[in-house]
Amino acid sequence: MMSNHSSATEFCLLGFAGSQELHHILFAIFFFFYSVTLMGNSVIIVIVCVGKQLQSPMYFFLGHLSALEILVTSIIVPVMLGGLLLPGMQTISLAACVTQLFLYLAVGTTEFALLGAMAVDRYVAVCNPLRYNVIMNSRTCNVVVIVSWVFGFLSEIWPVYATFQLTFCKSNVLDHFYCDRGQLLKLSCDDTLFTEIVLFLMAIFIILGSLAPTVVSYTYIISTILKIPSASGRRKAFSTCASHFTFVMIGYGTCLFLYVKPKQTQAAEYNKVVSLLISVLTPFLNPFIFTFRNDKVKEALRDSVKRCCQLLED
């Protein structure tokens, strides 16, 4: 705890309630999820780079999405795992807290921008296939990815700066497993109303702004697919979008619940559950979503495994 009119130089993370035995069980579960997430997304990156079948814009974007998923979970989960192993509250320095929050929000924003771009890519592929290679050329894809990364990191500078300009005099204990912005605002003895309104408007702009091209793209995609006369043709056209659409539903759904609301300081338990969905479950599901429903990815994976086996035999 801290005295009034002072600001924190470090924070204590409460993490998860429960006994040490429960913490060890949670550690095993989350460590498993984290390991599979790292391995699965790394495999996608490798096969996108080396697989001849996957040399197209869709898989180029998928490789970057997998890299972002690795970053998102790696920013949060190792700290969380450390808190589950160590008895008592886990301390984190002010600098580490600033860095963690900034990277988490910046990578998340980059991911939203990339998901919007992937939706437009699917629209061009389904609705304008004859001009697909002309519109989605390598230069366009590189520009889209660079803009997504730059926008993601630049757009979160002010929100994080404004958050840590506040004076944290109520306490230095965060009821969370990472440096959550909502919990930080709870600790401030300053008037946070203006900051919360601006953060809400920025969340609206970022999340709904990237969702808009997704909604428009899929409106045209569905309309085009329904006009295809054969059932097999409709299934084939929809299969090219199914994985991305599934990931969009999960990713946007969880983030809308967490960030797009006027009041940032909601119940800690609610925050923890939704944060687990974003930082643990979604990155874990990404390789499965884009593998099980995609024949080209499965074929590239089989070819990679065969090449590895041949190298080992030699």
UniProtKB/TrEMBL annotation:
Domain called G-protein coupled receptors family 1 profile: residue spans: 40-290
GO MF annotations, alphabetized: G protein-coupled receptor activity; olfactory receptor activity
Xref: Pfam families: 7tm_4
A GO-annotated cellular component: plasma membrane
Keywords from the named record: Cell membrane, G-protein coupled receptor, Membrane, Olfaction, Receptor, Sensory transduction, Transducer, Transmembrane, Transmembrane helix
The protein's role, per its UniProt record: Putative odorant or sperm cell receptor.
Protein name, entry field: Olfactory receptor
Source organism: Rhinolophus ferrumequinum (Greater horseshoe bat)
Encoding gene (name): OR9A2
